[in-house]
Amino acid sequence: MVVFVKATVYAQIVFSQSQEIVGAVSPATAIPSSYVVVSVNYEITDGSGTTGLGLRIHFDSSQLQEPVINDAVQLGFLGQQLLKDIDDLDVDESTDSYLLVAWAEINASWPGDAASTAVKLLDVSFNLSESFIGTSLNFSSPSNAAGYNFIQNQVQIGLDSSPVSGIAYQWNSHALMASVDVNLVGITEGVANGVPQEATSNTSGLYAFTDGQPGTNQMTVSKSISAGESGNVISSADALAALKIAVGINPNTDPDGAGPEEALSVSPYQYIAADINMDGRVTSADALAILKMAVKLDSAEPRRWVFVAEDYEFWDEASESFKTTRTGVAWDSDGMIFDYPENSVQNVVGVLMGDVNGNWTAPEESETLAENYFSDLVASQGGSLAQWGLTSPEEVEITSNNDEESGQSVTSEQITFFEELTDGTATLSQNIDGALVDREYIVKVPDTMTKTKYPVVFFFHGGGGNGSQWLNQGRGVTDLIDREEFIG
After folding, report:
1. Tens of pLDDT, residues 146-181
2. CB of 385 within 8 A of CB of 267?
3. How many CB atoms within 10 Å of residue 234?
4. Is the pTM of this model over 0.85?
5. Alpha-carbon span 468 to 471, nearest angstrom
6. Are the C-beta atoms of 386 and 314 separated by less than 8 Å?
């Protein structure tokens, strides 16, 4: 039997002019659970306007999610649709979905800028899935302009494979530490699943690994004791500081004695340094152990460095205080656990055990971190500058105000601080043009005071009057203070 089959052969027509799509992604590499923006750019070889373009943007929905189109060219814009690619229209099995976008302009003036051969058609943003490992975008066209070829350029979105890196520095001096040994290994359910890597910080405190292992990692950090650290850096003063912590006394020095300033809160790093036996508490036994270290008894604990993840959460936002107490000293003592590549930067803070006062001094050539580094850190992750032995600007009371041009000055003794502020009249002595003048002022507080901090608003009367007359002229200041809750 002979079977005749009728076959029709279609020839692909190749035109001399083309409509071309070029994509650009930002950032070029990304981490899981972040996002990227793809700019879709249009180029035409002859620079002419056309009747429009139908465009498919193909992607893998397991990697790229929740696409959102922004800044689309509006001339001839027909709309957009999100569809499943059941017919594999881009001939790529790795993609399963596409965005369909279309423009049509009967006057053949699309996309509206005939003088230019390159136009951005739109931006499309994608959220990356938690399992993102890198992917690609393809473009196809169901309907391009007559007489033009359609050319697409695949867009690659890579997984950010920046190696694990960071800096090591001492908590109180903020000196960057050299010769800090860092060990990194991937783990599965707490068990190492690969070969450990090792790195050592340089003179700028920087360490970096050459490779990264996606998934959960554990990092441990250590440093050998130098000759200087074997000396008098730990003293009886540290033992006394530990004993004060053990009985609930702040060991930090009050900067102005009976003045308005207060001693810094005990830093979590001070608690860690004092907890020599690492039982999660600071007791008199720890103080005795530090004293033995200070006088270098043979039975003393060996001196050692420990390192804490810079982003370890010591701060309780609800109470606006540190979680660490003398009976609850907790930190990542078994090593830092983090997911890579989501968290490729791992900075560590060094604490010399027993050095409760933080008196360790860095080698002369050491670099230090500027104070604004810690201000930025607190702004981004919360907490208090006291963690690093610094005073927050809002915690500093203004104790003097001098104006050389006017000859007026106010000293700290002339400023009264009230533990419980109430309505009333008081005086402030000021030196004006060489004469001591008592100036009366009135304090008004809200009718109900339930907070520990209130804004203060100053009201000034005109020349020739006084505060009482101004306040009693029916201005409604008292009602305003009660309603808006501030001190006047």
Report:
1. 889 999 999 999 887 778 999 999 999 999 999 999
2. no
3. 27
4. no
5. 5
6. no
